[in-house]
């Protein structure tokens, strides 16, 4: 599946363990060139091994183009990615990475509330470092952790300035997300990354909010129920001229794998954006949580998409 994927060559220049079970990597260009720029809250895919692609948030500030910093928690139910990072990557290991994508867009004028659980702070680190560097302090981070939170030193000045509230669940209850968010007004923008229970509470508290004022970063893809009802359709790859019939049993991703198509896959659940692909013809049925309506006019997240027409042509 990984044949010919365009990646940026990097090498691990440093790795450490800033918290139990968390491995931090610094990646840089092997010859010291600047890396492609990124925006606050962006993430990259690490191409760890053939067929093993994982997406992680960039933790350093976007003005720092000399390196990419990622922090990876070893998951007890690892599908292979975090274990590979912890056990197989060392200083000097070459790692292909995708171009950075995504962003978290904090409001310049409103009040920004970031809610994080443990290692779920990673997407907010680059945002907070960027805001602090620009003298923007119109934010607060409510950070739930069992014990000392991981990576706290990355935003220590903001903690000391009182803009970050840490809730140590060994000593105090978890924060009441609904109460935090309802203290605000229409000028409040909320962002959440953490375990599913936290995301569910956030979803409930912001159910009536306009989409533009809330944002969720997910680590794990929600279960996508396969649709076994759609009619088979023809999948055509425009560049290679390959085609295949997509049946409900095969699915679009299975069809692309059968054609050995050039599409990286990370979460396989429509949340990371690694597999976004331009489509040329047909009626894709979008089931992802990545693309905006405008982007869907020309792109599709193939790991979860289906097709409502008899033919789907992808720009591959
Ligand atoms: S692989 Fe993550 S969105 Fe498709």
Q: What ions, cofactors and ligands are bound?
A: FE2/S2 (inorganic) cluster
On the 0 to 100 scale, the average pLDDT is 92
The H-and-E topology, N to C, reads as: EEEEEHEEHEHEHEHEEEHEEHEEE
Number of strands: 18
* Tally of distinct domains: 3
- The global form is globular
- Any guess at the CATH architecture of the largest domain? 3-Layer(aba) Sandwich
Describe this structure in words.
The structure is a single chain. By secondary structure, this protein is of the alpha/beta class. It has three domains: 8-97, Translation factors (Elongation Factor Tu (Ef-tu), domain 3), CATH 2.40.30; 111-217, Nucleotide-binding domain of ferredoxin-NADP reductase (FNR) module (Rossmann fold, 3-Layer(aba) Sandwich), CATH 3.40.50; 233-314, Ubiquitin-like (UB roll) (Roll). It has helices at 81-88, 122-133, 156-160, 177-182, 196-205, 251-258, 293-296, and strands at 8-19, 22-28, 43-49, 52-57, 68-73, 94-97, 111-117, 139-145, 164-168, 188-193, 214-217, 233-237, 243-246, 276-281, 284-285, 299-301, 306-307, 311-314. Strands 4-3-6-1-2-5 form a six-stranded antiparallel beta sheet, with helices on one face. It has a five-stranded parallel beta sheet with strand order 9-8-7-10-11, with helices on both faces. Strand 7, helix 2 (122-133) and strand 8 (139-145) form a beta-alpha-beta unit. The longest helix is centred in the middle third of the chain and has 12 residues, at 122-133. It is globular and about 60 Å long. The two termini are 13 Å apart.
